[in-house]
Amino acid sequence: MVFTYVAFLLLLFGTYNVHGLIKPKHDKVVVCYVASWAAYRPGNGAFSLENLRPGHCTHLIYAFAGINASNWTIKSLDPWADMEKNGIGNYRKMTALRKQGLKVSLGIGGWNEGSINYSMMASSSDRRKTFIASTVEFLRTYEFDGLDLDWEFPGSRGGALYDKQNFVSLVKELRDTFRGHRFLLTAAISANKDTIDIGYDIPKISKYLDYIHVMAYDYHGAWNKQVLPNSPLRSKDRLSVEDTITYLLQQGAPAEKLVLGLAMYGRTFVLTTVPETPKINPIGLPSLDTGFKGPYTSEDGFMGFNEICEALVLYPQEWTTGWDNYSSTAYAIKKDHVVVYDDRKAIMIKVEYVRRQKLAGVMIWSIDTDDFRGKCSLLHGDMALLDGLDYPLMKSINTILANNTIPSEEKKEPNSSSVQLLSSIVFALSVTIIYFPLYANLS
Ligand SMILES: *[C@@H]1O[C@H](CO)[C@@H](O)[C@H](O)[C@H]1NC(C)=O
Ligand SMILES: *[C@@H]1O[C@H](CO)[C@@H](O)[C@H](O)[C@H]1NC(C)=O
Ligand SMILES: *[C@@H]1O[C@H](CO)[C@@H](O)[C@H](O)[C@H]1NC(C)=O
Ligand SMILES: *[C@@H]1O[C@H](CO)[C@@H](O)[C@H](O)[C@H]1NC(C)=O
Ligand SMILES: *[C@@H]1O[C@H](CO)[C@@H](O)[C@H](O)[C@H]1NC(C)=O
Ligand SMILES: *[C@@H]1O[C@H](CO)[C@@H](O)[C@H](O)[C@H]1NC(C)=O
């Protein structure tokens, strides 16, 4: 009778996945930025939080909040979308996903925020204090897990000489204050060696940050007036993922805090002359200083992966695709138009690199330009078994990460399902010990 009772308890608690959490099948972080303005894109490009698949990410970052340079507080850049009292309430819609086991942080800054107001805020102890206090209040109000600093970049783009030291002070003081609130503190940093040298004291900020999100893209673009990869794994000019990660490790960034950024977009180029045949590798060809736009993101020189793959599916006779082996990136050519981008293969090779280097995981810029509607399934037919044809890039990332994450000889801790089983048994036994006398009396 005792055994049936214990078996019953095991049945009840043993198969119970604590609070219905979505557990990724690997031990790496997958940090997904959500560009809040993606909601305003036209047609199939419009991305709202309902399109998010929480199981693909371990961390979400809401991009972006801003700095109010009148009183040095954090501020919403789009109160109508962010806050429910004005409109949609996306902050709380996103932080509600914490119930599913995700960590949800608020990103502050980004390219459009620039560097000047960040620089002025960080330059004074009083302003930092005001900023940090307002941030704590803000994160608590909307129930975020933490803050992601997206200062692009300390010491550059109008920033000041002492930004590098002031950034350390900002990060240290945020850490000191956040400790009591158990908030996460992360930062997105440039992948460019010169920008790193100007802006970041790597050993010091590594100490205070939980994770460093390496923006390992935008190495090249139309501004180079030459077709070059947005995010090359290797490069002879030393502007590449491997060069950046090697440099950061040399500077003293711990591998277990480095998170490699993956670009779910490509950079576009217009060649100075139409090539005689589209069956050429365009890398290195001269181009104009502007590219072209995609139909949803409408930003010159930029195309989301969803826009690229839809173009390839809709107009296969117009586009010729190819692979640049040295940089491990894909390209597509249509007359004088070229887009260089990361396809599934390029992304998977980078994720394998992350595993080999034992980095903390990957960061996604940004989840709203994966093929989140599954419009390009013709290109990804081999994914038919993977629970629908949407999110080909996110699924590829998680597949590689879940592939036998830790070789068994290196494993030190028991895996989560055995921990869960063990704790269920302990729980069942203690319930039995407490209630068995009562149960025996009743029967
Ligand atoms: C910086 O702050 C000033 C003063 O509030 C504001 O006018 C300006 O737009 C801010 N800069 C950016 C890039 O938001
Ligand atoms: C910025 O701060 C000033 C001064 O307190 C305030 O008047 C203004 O409304 C704030 N702006 C935003 C967008 O919160
Ligand atoms: C800054 O301005 C905002 C918006 O008006 C206000 O809510 C906040 O109280 C002000 N903070 C400080 C420290 O003055
Ligand atoms: C592709 O690049 C790698 C790394 O540089 C090299 O080892 C390999 O031989 C190349 N393969 C081809 C087919 O060129
Ligand atoms: C899993 O990893 C092994 C060894 O690295 C590799 O041989 C295999 O192809 C991988 N499987 C998948 C599905 O990627
Ligand atoms: C985890 O442990 C369970 C029970 O010991 C075992 O069945 C399962 O294969 C393990 N999973 C991994 C990924 O090692």
Automatic annotation (TrEMBL):
InterPro entries, per the entry: Chitinase_II/V-like_cat, Chitinase_insertion_sf, GH, Glyco_hydro18_cat, Glyco_hydro_18_chit_AS, Glycosyl_Hydrlase_18
Keyword Transmembrane in annotation: no
One Pfam family this sequence matches: Glyco_hydro_18
Keywords from the UniProt entry: Glycosidase, Hydrolase, Signal
Domain GH18 span(s) in chain numbering: 28-404
GO molecular function: chitin binding; chitinase activity
CDD domains named in the record: GH18_chitolectin_chitotriosidase
Any one Gene Ontology BP term: chitin catabolic process
Cellular component annotations (GO), alphabetically ordered: extracellular region
Signal peptide segment: 1-20
Family designation: Belongs to the glycosyl hydrolase 18 family.
The name this protein goes by in its record: GH18 domain-containing protein
